[in-house]
Amino acid sequence: MSEFISKQDLLTWLGQLMGERNLVAPTRVDDLLLFRKVDRVEDIVFDFDNTTMSPKEWFYPSSETLFYVEQKDGQTELIPAAIEKETAIFGIRPCDAQGMAMNDYPFLEEPADALYMQHRDKTALIGLACITACPECFCTSMGCGPHDPANVDILLTEVTDGYIAQVLTDKGKTLLPDNLLTTADVSSPPAPVLSEVPSDGIAEKMRQAFDEPFWDRLADRCIHCNICSYVCPTCYCFDVRDYTDKERIERVRSWESCQSPGFTRLAGGHDPRSTKGSRLRQRFSHKLLYFPRQFGALGCIGCGRCVRACPVNIDIREIIKDVQQLGVKSEA
Amino acid sequence: MKPENPLLPYLSTLQELIDLTPDVKLFRLELNDPDIRESFDYKPGQFVFVSAFGVGESPFGITSVAHRKAGLDVAIRRVGTVTNALHQLEPGATVGVRGPFGNYFPLDEYKGKNIFIIGGGIGFAPLRPIITTVLDYREDYGDLVIINGARSPQDLVFAPEFDAWAASPKTKLELTVDAGDEKWTGKVALIPSVVSELKLSPQNAIAITCGPPIMIHFTLIELRKLGFADNQIITTLEGKMKCGLGKCARCNVGEKYICKDGPVFSMEQISQLIEQF
Q1: Are residues B121 and B216 in the same domain?
Q2: Which end of chain B is more exposed for a tag (fewer CB within 10 A), N or C?
């Protein structure tokens, strides 16, 4: 037996949520599918594999003011930005929810990032289990799964005429009233089967492959467009700049990518990571070696977005396979 | 006192601005809030971010020592956008300060040892708190040898203090430049060759070096030739950084962050890093 919500009740409930908080859901924007704030349930897309951009932009926007500088009568005051309104994100996939949990490691580690923490505290996640997989999906190889309930407040799984609803946290209980749920004799459809990527022991193999010419060769075709970092749910590197083009000064944080040529360049000109190969190696080493060493978990959740987005077909799944082989060679 | 929002600077006032070289100024800062100022403690080797509001913020090694309670000093070389903006400021200007960040030189471990300070250019600045501390607590430490090198005589930082340093007990000051001028009577030599010439003894000693990467590279070679073990050679790394908290992921070297695991590393630690900076 499962807790069940009919499609019609789901729509009604989502409509109610919009009245009391921001509701963010997958919507069509031109030919992209993006998490956007919705005002009408008709705008929500229910039938999708995954969104073009990850939901990280709701916790860590591509560009976000950290504080404002007010200067009046010779006095300076700093006004920190604050997140006022509660938000519910509908339609987050289990892999992306895990990605947000991965970002918690660096951002919430003491001293916690104030804005990120507010975004996280004020946002509830209504997950949608995956019924089908994209060809690029490999979450099952990265410690996650199409029906993984671990990192959402509510997980919905589509069945005939409605959804199985798993209310998993107190936040979820507050969000979804019991009276909308019925008990029904339905069972969850089987999770889609994904192709496996050999991620076991990859951190150690990455260490062994660190000085291989593999990275320079691979990077030959990289055009450092940074799209891999932008679509990635777990890429979190940032830049901070001041802007004065509006009425007051703002200090703004924005996404940055370790693939950018100036990522590590110092004001004096010295750049310890000046080659494309060293920068490409940095991205994969961060996810598959440094992050596991720092936090005990892989820094990739297998959503496959970078594979889909890369204009020159740099494919993390192939890299993992190749590095496993390079490791074998180094041991010999 | 820990700030609630670690990316929000403390408002501070530029008290004094002293020209150290044609492109380096010493900024003496005072945190505006008396409570924060009182509890603002730091150690030699740590750094702060200084904001020029409207332009940005950058990290700078602290050159003062907390125990003297005489304000927070940073020596800033005019080289990029933020440092150019900071150099334009006048005393009385409001700036932002975040920090202190990073680890520090473990001076307690150096007690009783001979200390060799080897700094090049603006890289000498974060080494000054070690000198001040050793001279303020002179009996706690062994011999102090200071090698300060720069491109030219006018680029040597902290010149007004040279006489006092040289006159201190158990202290030797060696100044060297890449190219002298008509008034210069001192050494014209690269820092690594001065290190070699002085035949510094590794016996009960610690060598602390900071400067341009190429200088550190060759200084290291000379120190090893003299018999220094890698755990007797200390340096500071620098990296582009935006937060100081290990979050922006700009200054990582392998799984270490220069901002929080460093900036002070022994050569032994550096040789264990995956990536070479």
Answers
A1: yes
A2: N
Q: Do B119 and B173 fall within a single domain?
A: yes
Taking the C-alpha atoms of residue B237 and residue A17, their distance in angstroms, rounded to an integer, is: 51
Strands B94-101 and B47-52: antiparallel
Q: Which residue do the tokens 């409509």 mark? A: A15
pLDDT of residue A305: 97
Mean predicted lDDT score pLDDT of chain B: 95
**Mean pLDDT across chain A:** 94
How high is the pLDDT of residue A327? Answer: 59
Backbone angles phi, psi at B58, to 5 degrees: -140, 155
Binding-face residues of B in 82-111 toward A, CB within 8 A: 82-83, 94, 96
pTM for the model stands at 0.94
B26-49 pLDDT per residue, tens = 999 999 999 999 999 999 999 999
Q: Does this complex have an ipTM over 0.85?
A: yes
CA dist A42 and A44 (Å) reads 6
Among the partner residues A239, A244, A273, nearest to B242 by beta-carbon distance: A239
Instruction: Please report whether residue B88 resides in a domain.
Output: yes
Give kind and range of the element (H or E) at residue B145: strand B144-150
Which residue does chain B place closest to A252, by CA atoms? B56
Tokens of A5: 């919500």
Q: Which residues of chain B are within 8 Å of residue A283 when distances are taken between CB atoms?
A: none
Domain shared by B142 and B194, yes or no: yes
The alpha-carbon gap from A93 to the nearest alpha carbon of chain B, in Å, equals 25
- Domain co-membership, B111 together with B85: no
Residue B207 lies in a domain: yes
Contacts of A249 in chain B (CB under 8 A): 53-54
Q: Which domain holds residue B21?
A: 10-101
**How confident is residue B2, by pLDDT bands cut at 50, 70 and 90?**
low
Nearest CB to B7: which of A114, A249, A264? A114
Domain boundary among B69, B101, B133: B101
- What are the structural domain ranges in chain A? 2-184, 202-331
pLDDT in tens, A52-95: 999 999 999 999 999 999 988 889 999 999 999 999 999 999 99
Confidence of residue A214 (pLDDT cuts 50, 70, 90): very high
- The verdict on residue B157 lying in a domain is yes
CB contact under 8 A, A270 and B5: no
Assigned domain for B211 exists: yes
**B234-256: per-residue pLDDT in tens?**
999 999 999 999 999 999 999 99
* Integer Cα distance of A88 and A101 in angstroms: 16
Looking at CA atoms only, how far is residue B38 from chain A in angstroms? 21
Q: Do A240 and B249 touch (CB under 8 A)?
A: no
CB distance from A67 to chain B under 8 Å? yes
Residue ending a domain, among B73, B101, B129, is B101
Q: For residue B81, count CB atoms less than 10 angstroms from its CB and return exposed for 0-12, middle for 13-18, buried for 19 or more.
A: middle
CA distance A73 to A91: 49
Q: Closest to A242 (Cβ–Cβ): which among B53, B94, B243?
A: B53
pLDDT, tens digit (0-9, with 9 covering 90-100), for B129-168: 999 999 999 999 999 999 999 999 999 999 999 999 999 9
Mutual orientation of helices A316-331 and A276-285 as an angle, nearest 10°?
A: 90
Q: Is B229 found in the same domain as B161?
A: yes
In this structure, are B111 and B211 located in the same domain? Answer: yes
On chain B, the residues whose CB falls within 8 A of the CB of A103 are none
Structurally, chain B folds into a number of domains equal to 2
